[in-house]
Amino acid sequence: PGIYPVLPGHRAPRGEPATTRLLNAGRMSDAAPVPTSAVLMSAWTQIATKCSSQNKTFMACKASDADPAACLRQGDEVSGCVLSVLKDLNSKCKNEFNAYAKCMDYYSNDFESCRTEQKNFESSCSL
Asked: Which ranges of 70-114 does DSSP label H, i.e. alpha helix?
């Protein structure tokens, strides 16, 4: 059982919602930071590059079917890809990534206020 209930009549893939698996994976392992807005904003270029095909597939599904349940598998693939990118960043350049994410958190995701941390992160960590 996950944190979020499954709505009656809806069956979540693999037994629980993707959000729950993502959050549980973040708690169970130190390999990935919790995907807060600051963490996701800090990693956006890597996520956009590495998860492009999963995002395109998900968006095509959403455009072709108004039923949210129709695209759960594709959404799950996007979530898995994002978690994989965060794990890679955390293992390859943890200090620079954390410094950038902390700055983004402190300055409410204002890129301009964190250019030094962004430069250090981007110069030391390419996936």
From this structure: 72-92, 94-106
